[in-house]
Amino acid sequence: MIEKTLSIDYLEYSSLDELSEEDRALVETAREAMSGSYSPYSNFRVGAALRLEDGTVIKGANQENAAYPSGLCAERVAMFAASANHPDKAFDTLAIIAADHGVICESPATPCGSCRQVMAEYERKFNRPLKIILAGEKRLYKFWKVKDILPFVFDSLKV
Ligand code: THU
Q1: CA atoms of 133 and 136, how far apart (whole Å)
Q2: How many Å apart are CA 141 and CA 158, to the nearest integer?
Q3: Catalytic residue among 75, 106, 121, 137
Q4: 55: region left, alpha or beta (phi > 0 left; psi from -120 to 50 alpha)
Q5: Does residue 6 carry a pLDDT above 80?
């Protein structure tokens, strides 16, 4: 038996001003995207902005449903819209921000397992790292690739 440890490299910022101009703009777009949230059940609005390789930005917001599992997270709304409308453009960076009952969360909202799995699929499709920015009012995280937030990802039936 060998005991092993995984470590990941990511950036933590304490303010939006510390981000590059293009990342800051992406977070601002994610913030705008929250206005498209349909979240009468949770009152938790999530906005996502996905920048494609050519600079195109696709917005997404969470969509809820009386039959709960029929709803979809903001990240997947953005990724599926991007893939459906721009199937040949690789994903570059995905920014996510959330507000609970109208108040932007202090700590970043972190994507659910299903959204991470979908991110991994497109990262593999385009063979290009998808960067992820999780924005909160007090801190923000930037990850360099999906595997950093989904270690041991399932990505093939082959072993
Ligand atoms: N939600 C997202 O849209 N993205 C996340 O990363 C976490 C959760 C949504 C799903 C649901 O509409 C609401 O937030 C509460 O879970």
Answers
A1: 10
A2: 33
A3: 75
A4: left
A5: yes
Cβ atoms of 29 and 154 within 8 Å: the answer is no
Q: Which two tokens stand for residue 23?
A: 């990342």
Kindly give, in sequence order, each residue whose CB lies less than 8 Å from that of residue 149, ignoring residues fewer than 6 positions away.
Answer: 8, 110, 111, 116, 132, 143
Mean residue pLDDT across the chain: 96
Give the closest residue (by CA) to ligand 1 atom 3. 73
Kindly give the pairing relationship between strand 91-100 and strand 57-61.
unpaired
Distance CA(78)–CA(40), nearest Å, equals: 20
> How far is the C-alpha of 48 from the C-alpha of 76, rounded, in Å?
9
Interhelix angle for 74-85 vs 113-126, to 10°? Answer: 30
Residue nearest to atom 14 of ligand 1 (CA): 44
Say if residues 73 and 115 touch (Cβ distance below 8 Å): yes
- What is this structure's pTM? 0.96
Structure tokens at 58: 């696709």
Comparing CA positions, the residue from 131, 134, 69 lying closest to residue 104 is 134
Length of the chain, in residues = 159
Q: Tell me, what's the pLDDT at 47? A: 98
